[in-house]
Amino acid sequence: MAHPTQRNRLADEESPYLRQHADNPVNWQPWDEQALETAREHDVPIFLSIGYSACHWCHVMADESFADETVAAQLNEHFVPIKVDREERPDIDSIYMTVCQLVTGRGGWPLSAWLTPEGKPFYVGTYFPREAKRGQPGFLDILENVTNSWESDREEIENRADQWTAAATDRLEETPDAVGASQPPSSDVLEAAANASLRSADHEFGGFGSDGPKFPQPSRLRVLARAADRTGRDEFSDVLVETLDAMAAGGLYDHVGGGFHRYCVDRDWTVPHFEKMLYDNAEIPRAFLLGYQQTGDERYAEVVAETLDFVERELMHEAGGFFSTLDAQSEDPETGEREEGAFYVWTPDEVEAAVTDETDAELFCSRYDITESGNFEGKNQPNRVASIDELADQFDLPADEVEERLESARETAFQAREQRPRPNRDEKVLAGWNGLMIATCAEAALVLGEDDYAEMATDALAFVRDRLWDADEKRLSRRYKDHDVAIDGYLEDYAFLARGALGCYEATGEVDHLAFALELARVIEAEFWDEAQGTLYFTPESGESLVTRPQELGDQSTPSAAGVAVETLLELDGFAGESGEFERIATTVLETHANRLETNSLEHATLCLAADRLESGALEVTIAADDLPEEWRDAFASRYLPDRLFARRPATDDELEPWLDELELTDAPAIWAGRETRDGEPTLYVCRDRTCSPPTHDVEEALEWLEDGGTVTESPF
Fold first, then answer.
1. Sequence-ordered list of residues with C-beta below 8 angstroms from that of 232, at least 6 positions apart, any chain
2. Which residues contact 215 (CB under 8 A, 6 or more apart)?
3. Are 122 and 134 a contacting pair, CB within 8 Å?
4. Angstrom distance (rounded) from CA 411 to CA 496
């Protein structure tokens, strides 16, 4: 038969992951109508390979199989081979990863799936070696078997494809029959999720699970922080602190340059999987901010500051947006080969060559466990194993001198590391991931009182709005890369970015950010909300039709798109006029999925947080002032106050009118109405669940009102 595909088309793509495979002898196609039509026209199966640029085993499979002429000949002759970047197309990844997990009980990347020309899966797996080994089938054997089965057992393949697609549809798309018949789940689901976290907690090494690998799980940490505040139970705070301490001390954290790796391969957080993802370096610091608010531990604030410095230095576009990832691999200067972790690991000799003061080098090695035996393939991923006081005793030095010497050694080691060959950087800018980072920068500006973080947030928001938002069509694209804009935005893009825009409004008091958040929320209502099913889908109504339309209800490496959307709609409802439509949508989604949350709360951590927010009500802090007084910011933002919302507004109603025009509101929403400054001074109004304090100029008086449970007292005005 004629070859169904004639050339590798990936050089025409902007995704760095796809371009990594542009020189393969495999005639890779992007996921587009041309490739799908080719499969239908030639009636051949699709081989779908899904990965991402920082994926280690994706590189391994590419080197072993996709660079191999024999494999390429098989794929080109009998299949339409399609490559997908999961970071660009999470909808495609969600569908076929769900099938893989249902069929094999596990998932991961690279994801390998064989599909009918209609896109229905009939064989799935993850990494396959070229030849069979260690109980794994060989990729070449699978290709031959699939080819033979396609020709001889077509009916069986079609039946299996139909069954698997139906199973994926049941898992991803379906909702309960009786939509709206139940009540939204109570805050009990939050405590249930926190209790489940306690049961899985590793009290010896921190984190969750009794074995490796260890993942950071920031959504669980948010649940623990909220549950500790709601219940006063120390067990929740203990697990939160154990986990934050373990992540800050272990190999997950880059002690030399700041920032977090993807996860650790072992139970005790020693050796990471070395890629650095933008979403981890957004969501993990957000958890450390909660820890800082609850405990006052300055080390947590330092971790946030060091991580944001890393992001600004290594993941920020010169015009303001944030890039996606740093690869796990880089060139080893000794071998010239690309090795995982080569940029980050050390030997004692390398430390001594970089840190020329002998005592400083010894302190550094003792502090970070840099030994001759090593903890990673003969070298060492730094782990903080000795305290300042222990080192002071060991080296007979004052503690403050130890700290100064260690910081000097770290800075010197950092400068030496900068001379090494760097990991590749995936320079696509994703709307949703930028939204996560923007929200964290804005919250850090409030909690830590650093205006530079607010500038990082607003610069990135401006970048995304300028390049990815079509103001005329009211539509958001997902990806920007080298002036190329592509892919309709998904629910996570709109929801994460809306949360980020709202955070920018809170941090700066600029109404334009609030207006943008409301615009994004209205598109969520128009494109992702399904009234009949009572749910929010992951893909837009006007988007590409796939074999099923997924929802994203559970938390994964990023928070649940539906969960963040529900939280954000609840936050924005008070600014959207009198309709209450945003709250109605959020409430209905929680009602629709109440049974999921009640039976498997931990998997749906963000939705459980949203359910708690709905029941408890927002903590609205309305500030009528030209600027947010520093004392007020510090008093509210430095405390852990769940669901705190800074509802900043101008000092007078006359000054408020242009804001209402920009928000297209006829009247001031209740959160601002009648809340001018009193006596010409900045004035504070605090409300919890529609019960409000008297207006005050004294922040401590407002906090006392909160601590008293919101008891109405006589107004001084």
1. none
2. 207, 208, 263, 557
3. no
4. 34
Supply 596's token pair.
Answer: 């999921």
Burial of 627 per CB tally in 10 Å (0-12, 13-18, 19+): exposed
How many Å apart are CA 689 and CA 709, to the nearest integer?
11
Half-sphere exposure of 108 (CA within 13 A, CB side): 11
- For residues 498 and 435, the answer to whether their CB atoms sit within 8 Å is yes
Q: Is the pLDDT of residue 587 over 70?
A: yes
pLDDT at 296: 95
Residues in the chain: 717
Tokens of 515: 């207006």
By the 10 Å C-beta count (0-12 exposed, 13-18 middle, 19+ buried), 198 is classed as middle
Q: How many CB atoms lie within 10 A of CB 177?
A: 6
Q: E-strand spans in 86-165?
A: 111-115, 121-125
**What stretch of H or E contains 476?**
strand 475-481
> Of all residues in the chain, what percent are helix, strand and coil, respectively (each to 5)?
50, 15, 35
Distance CA 272, CA 328 (A): 10
Q: What is the pLDDT of residues 429-461, one digit of tens each?
A: 999 999 999 999 999 999 999 999 999 999 999
Over the stretch 186-233, which tens digit does the pLDDT of each residue have? Answer: 999 999 999 999 999 999 999 999 998 999 999 999 999 999 999 999
Six token digits for residue 706 = 């909160």
For residue 387, the 8-state DSSP code is -
pLDDT at 717 > cutoff 50: no
Q: Which candidate, 632, 615, 608, 611, places its Cα nearest to that of 686?
A: 632
d(CA 184, CA 171): 21
Measured between alpha carbons, how far is 488 from 681 in angstroms, rounded to an integer?
47
Please name the residue that has the structure tokens 């993942």.
215
- How far CA 169 is from CA of 98, 392, 550, 670, in Å, comes to 10, 61, 8, 42
Residue 447 to residues 199, 507, 652, 703, Cα–Cα distance (Å): 31, 10, 27, 16
On whether the CB atoms of residues 668 and 656 are closer than 8 A, the answer is: yes
In whole angstroms, give the CA distance from residue 360 to residue 410.
Answer: 9
Q: Give alpha helix (H) positions in 296-324.
A: 298-314
CA 175 to CA 534: how far, in whole Å? 8
DSSP 551-600: ---S-SSS--HHHHHHHHHHHHGGGS-S--HHHHHHHHHHHHTHHHHHHS
pLDDT score, position 467:
98
Q: Position of tokens 């800075």?
A: 411
Is the four-CA dihedral 152, 156, 162, 165 of positive or negative sign?
A: negative
**Using CA atoms, how far apart are residues 343 and 142, in angstroms rounded to an integer?**
36
Structural element, H or E, at residue 226: helix 218-231
Q: Six-digit token pair at 714?
A: 């006589």
